[in-house]
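Chapter summary example.
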Amino acid sequence: MNEIVRNTQGSVTQTSLDPQDWTEFRVLAHRMLDEAIDGIANVRSRPVWQPIPDGVRAAIKSDVPREASDLADVYREFAEHVAPYATGNVHPGFMGWVHGGGTAVGMLAEMLAAGLNANLGGRDHMPIEIERQIVDWMRRLFAFPQSASGIFVTGTSMANLMAVLVARTTALGTLARQYGIGNDGALLTAYTSRAAHGCVSRAMDISGLGSDALRKIGLDADHRIDVAALRAQIAADRKVGFKPFLVVASAGTVDIGAIDDLRAVAELCREQGIWFHVDGAFGALAILSPELAPLLGGIELADSIALDFHKWGQVPYDAGFLLVRDGERHRQAFAQPAAYLSREARGLAAGAVWPCDLGPDLSRGFRALKTWFTLKTFGTERLGAVIARSCALAKYLEARVLAEPRLELLAPVNLNIVCFRYRSNDAVNREIVADIQESGIAAPSGTTLDGTFAIRAAIVNHRTDETDIDALVAAVLEFGGRRSGGVIDVEAPPLVAQ
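The structure predicted for these 498 residues follows.
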């Protein structure tokens, strides 16, 4: 019997995935960390983004790795073929999409979380308490009641979907989770603006209600949802037998960063008995800035708020979040009894509401730790100042555009997003965006506003400064001149008198 035990123990030891030489591993690990830190510290020395050469794409294609490889060789492949060709949002010249720049602090926290390898689906352990602490901080920041609940998710796309599901369960009752949405569910209608993010429509699709059940309301002169038109559409739907159940307002629209009149929408929803959700993917964190927080007036009246810490919060990807005013309604939309999830009075299975009661995931990573590290290390005042600074830089870019006859501003600058164009046709402006991206100087993106293609600069990275704005403007002018042959029909810049 002892021989069997000895043989078994030997077999288990041989199959362990731990390093055989911890000293050698430690040396390589320190090198990896040093080079990762160097990559952030010296980020300006490399292109924002660069196209992936065909040879690099081909180099990583291989058969399933049946045999073991040396860790140093795997890391070498990463350093040569992966790291140089990343998205580029760590770089201060990245302004294409609303991507946060991350921080070295967040990177270390992610490493520590990986070392713990905690599953935050449930049970009684401190990682869940860290997540609960952040829920409490968010509850306080947005003036939600103590009974509010919150949960980390991949991003606002998932948070918006979950908000739709909570609102759907509230409208139809918990039996709809068992029997389906039925005839009543087929009559449910939701509302958002034409400028809302496409994930809202997708959430309606995935939830089973259908994207046609989402009414897209027109905009007012400030690119916000037209509240009068919203009221009229709700009344028209009720008149023909539909059941309005949800309004999704935007705190920072995807194209230009407009914030809906949240207070007016909240009052309408309360009057109509409709769930009021705010898609605050990046804009909701303006609450951290005393200068910008007044723009969010009314967000404290929401039934739920979706936001991303990985955008203006500068937490490394991914760290989305959903906050729900009524924690019990939140739980009713997702909690599911199961023997393997039973709660005990003591031991590891102790505890009341587990995160798996508040969302679809049973296996969940420790996203809260990098967020906790970020909030604790920098504090909300400094993070708020970073957010306000990005908006000030957007105003600086706006001024550069208005002062340059070859450029045209295409939309008001509400927060941190500037939409403009070189005074030429759409085809030229599309080429300008690609030219600048491929040059490595900066990384703007493009969008279409009122049928016109716009160069879109979303300033989110805490490393961005005026020199990066100047480099973007210079690149637009240089590539615009090349693409248009230098012939420009100059008009008086619009919005200059506003």
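To summarize the output: Residues 122 and 275 are 28 Å apart (CA to CA).
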